[in-house]
Design goal:
single chain; about 725 residues; mainly beta; six-stranded mixed beta sheet; about 5% helix; about 50% strand
């Protein structure tokens, strides 16, 4: 279970509270030097796996927060934030980069959402009460996948526990959560049956909530949600073979997105996976995986919010589908881990295909349509080599290192588009003709290179160095948005964008230095990073006369066209934990990132848009017998490094307290009592965006405030 927090707000001393967590991470070190903690089990985030791979693993429970998509829990991981366009439309941000720049895998597969504004982001596909989260810190290994320019995060169900005897035995679990502020209900049920070599699982989920109230009592519009889910899993194991299959289904019904121009009417999502792992020699394993997903999605601007005039009613019907295949050959040792002292290889190849379509209509005008994306196909073919080795010096201390190389090709194509407006508007006709007459097939060659090494500083401290190049091809919307629309993969800046068939790939040069120290119940992990991104894709003022004439006619600002400019980001993130004794523990994490363009727009080198401010959290945890209590301070400094191009305004800092009390009633039942925003503070998260819903308690263009005091209960029952 991760530390319990809820992010964001306004703060009396702008940078002090956020900086506290940085200070705590350092101060805990001196305290640990003079105290020896007794063995205990209250560690809530564990650093596991190979340090030189930058692997951070944690367990997440839904009971820790009212967040239906785990954003509050994920935001505790060092460097991780979530852009919140709606309570079920969160977009993962890592070290200032987000969206398609960060590889997020759900159930170990890539997800192709249908929503061109990421309403059905990968986080919306998380289903299950207990999740295992793997964060590949800094420069992600090439084996994690292509186009991981901004890092990689994997979220999946906890690994199944098999029985020790050849007999089917079943368990069932029911969890139920209720929070009063927004009348939110979260019910999860699971039935799990297993023998010593096979398992079957069924999981179901229901989540529903109304609009919440902010700390000053205002109703925040379009914060309601309604969704259900079902996931089936099965596995079979022999001495040398493991077969796992999974099918997940998520129905998101009417749900709001206050930072976007439309709300969700429905999203139907299906994803699946078949994985086969087989040992074919004494130290080699083959891993095969076939997977895919498909989403169907309707959104509009008139049913669930104050509607514009009938002529401006818009319904967007979109769909997507994806199919992928991975094959990996992994060299492993007797303990099942990649070989170090003798050297260990990972070799693999993959293919991933996405298809997207989108059509905009007006239910009051049967003739009106904009076919903005028509049968788009994006294909990725990739192969990699990765080697883990170790320098064995005279001091007999292993100094592990890793080198990886991945080569990929991305190809995109799109069919012709059209609009009913082309017959009466020459500007629309010009855009249609220009797009349809252009060569719409584009391709990109990507090369990823990663070098990592770890060196001991002292008996208890290590330092890691990571260097790499990571590349990303443009998304389909960055290339094929031929008509100026608010399609920006979830930027939520209110600007109209058009695509660019001549976009270049993004190429990032990355460096990361990390220090890890462990002693007597104390552990600290800190990283500083720098990355220079050539040909960073960003919207710049359009020079297309037809597009600009259309936006003028619509009463909107000048359109932005996706173009390439240089950018750089640098910063640091820290995580620390100190077990005072077997009952008390303090944990803290903090992050700071600065991102700016290195090339000017209108003679100004702007900050990057929607970047998380200096922020952190501190949790004091107490555990005794069956009681586990945690008090968390979540803090952020003001964010005044904002992009005027995207009409971004500064956000005040804040400090918010949250409390959780767990009580184990018996071996089969656990009860939790949760208070979020203990002081009922009125505050807004910078990454929450601005309100786009008219005629509400919150003004148009005002920062979307976070939830006020929210009291909840959570019950776990195992049968």
């Amino acid at each position: 279970m991760l530390n319990h927090i809820q992010s964001n707000g306004r703060m009396m001393a702008p940078k002090i509270l956020a900086a506290i967590s940085l200070a705590v991470c350092l101060a805990l070190g001196s305290a640990a030097s003079s105290a020896v903690a007794e063995e205990s089990n209250i560690e809530r985030i564990e650093v596991l796996g190979q340090i030189n791979s930058g692997l951070l693993e944690s367990q997440i429970d839904f009971e820790d927060s009212s967040s239906p998509d785990l954003r509050a829990q994920l935001s505790q991981l060092p460097g991780v934030s979530v852009n919140g366009n709606g309570l079920v439309s969160g977009i993962v941000q890592y070290r200032g980069l987000y969206g398609d720049r960060v590889k997020v895998k759900i159930d170990d597969i890539d997800i192709a959402g249908a929503g061109p504004n990421a309403m059905d982001s990968p986080l919306s596909h998380v289903l299950g009460t207990q999740q295992e989260v793997i964060l590949y810190q800094g420069v992600a290994p090439v084996s994690v996948g292509a186009e991981s320019l901004g890092g990689a995060l994997v979220i999946r169900n906890n690994k199944p526990d098999l029985n020790t005897r050849d007999k089917w035995e079943s368990t069932a679990a029911l969890t139920a959560t209720y929070f009063g502020n927004n009348d939110s209900k979260n019910v999860n049920a699971e039935v799990f049956s297993a023998t010593d070599n096979a398992y079957i699982s069924v999981q179901g989920q229901l989540q529903k909530a109304g609009n919440y109230e902010s700390g000053n009592g205002d109703e925040v519009p379009s914060t309601f949600y309604d969704r259900t889910g079902l996931k089936l899993g099965a596995g079979y194991f022999t001495d040398d073979t493991a077969i796992n299959a999974l099918v997940g289904y998520r129905n998101t019904d009417e749900s709001g997105t206050p930072a976007l121009a439309m709300d969700i009417i429905y999203v139907d999502s299906l994803w699946y996976k078949l994985a086969v792992d087989r040992e074919f020699s004494n130290d080699w394993q083959a891993k095969l995986k076939l997977y895919g997903n498909q989403n169907e999605h309707d959104m509009n601007n008139y049913e669930l919010r104050s509607a514009p005039m009938p002529a401006m009613h818009r319904l967007n019907t979109v769909d997507s589908e994806a199919l992928g295949f991975d094959i990996d050959f992994v060299q492993f040792g007797q303990n099942g881990q990649t070989l170090r002292s003798e050297g260990g290889w990972r070799i693999g190849a993959s293919y991933y295909q996405q298809k997207h379509s989108s059509r905009i209509t007006n239910p009051n005008n049967a003739m009106f349509f904009i076919h903005n994306f028509n049968d788009i196909e994006r294909d990725l073919l990739s192969a990699y080599l990765e080697y883990d080795g170790s320098f064995n010096s005279t001091d007999k201390i292993d100094k592990p290192w890793q080198i990886g190389l991945r080569a990929s090709e991305v190809t995109l194509n799109a069919d012709e588009v059209g609009s009913s407006m082309a017959m009466m508007n020459p500007n629309v006709a010009a855009l249609v003709m220009g797009f349809n007459n252009a060569n719409r097939e584009v391709d990109y060659q990507l090369v990823d290179i990663v070098l990592k090494t770890q060196m001991p500083l002292t008996e208890r401290a290590d330092i890691t160095f990571s260097l790499g190049q990571k590349e990303r091809a443009p998304t389909y919307s960055e290339i094929y948005s031929w008509f100026p629309l608010e399609v920006s993969a979830g930027l939520a800046d209110g600007r109209n964008y058009i695509g660019n068939l001549n976009l270049k790939k993004e190429s990032a040069k990355k460096a990361d230095v990390g220090i890890q120290y462990q002693k007597a119940g104390f552990s600290v992990m800190g990283n500083v990073f720098y990355q220079k991104i050539d040909d960073y894709i960003i919207g710049t003022p359009s020079e297309s006369s037809p597009a600009n004439m259309i936006t003028t006619m619509m009463g909107a600002q000048q359109a932005l066209q996706w173009n390439n400019l240089g950018a750089q980001l640098h910063g640091l993130d820290v995580y620390a934990s100190y077990e005072i004794d077997k009952h008390w523990q303090i944990t803290s994490s903090a992050q700071w990132v600065n991102g700016k363009l290195t090339e000017a727009i209108n003679s100004e080198k702007l900050p990057l848009y929607r970047v998380a401010p200096l922020s952190g959290n501190i949790t004091v945890n107490w555990q005794y017998d069956r009681i586990d209590a945690a008090l968390t301070l979540v803090a952020a400094a003001k964010q005044d490094e904002v992009s005027s191009l995207q009409n971004e305004s500064p956000t005040a800092g804040y400090g918010v307290f949250n409390f959780i009390l767990d009580y184990e009633l018996n071996a089969a039942m656990n009860l939790s009592f949760v208070i979020e925003n203990l002081a009922d503070k009125s505050y807004a998260q910078h990454l929450g965006g601005v309100n786009r819903v008219a005629n509400a308690d919150i003004s148009l263009g005002e920062k979307v405030p976070e939830i006020g005091r929210n009291i909840g209960v959570h019950l776990d029952v195992v049968f």
